Amino acid sequence: MSHLSKNSVSRQVETAVLWLLSAYKRFVSPYLPAACRYEPSCSV
User: Fold this and answer.
1) Which residues span the domain enclosing 38?
2) What is the pLDDT of residue 1?
């Protein structure tokens, strides 16, 4: 695989991961209950 095609694949993977994270934050996260792993000192 050439350097250029590796760069292209890497960019596509990066874009897909960022899109998935964005979709999770927008569509899944609002429906989950608030959670703090540092209870009871968690600041809100």
Assistant:
1) 1-44
2) 56
How many domains are there within the chain?
Answer: 1
Give, in order, the Cα–Cα distances in Å from 15 to each of 7, 8, 9, 11, 12: 12, 11, 10, 6, 5
* Of residues 10, 9, 36, the one with CA closest to residue 44: 36
Residue listed under structure tokens 């009871």: 40
Establish whether the linkage from the previous residue to 40 is cis, with ω within 30° of 0. yes
pTM value is 0.64
With vertex at residue 16, the alpha carbon angle to CA 12 and CA 17, rounded to the nearest 5 degrees, is 120
Under 8 Å between Cβ of 11 and 3:
no
pLDDT of residue 4: 65
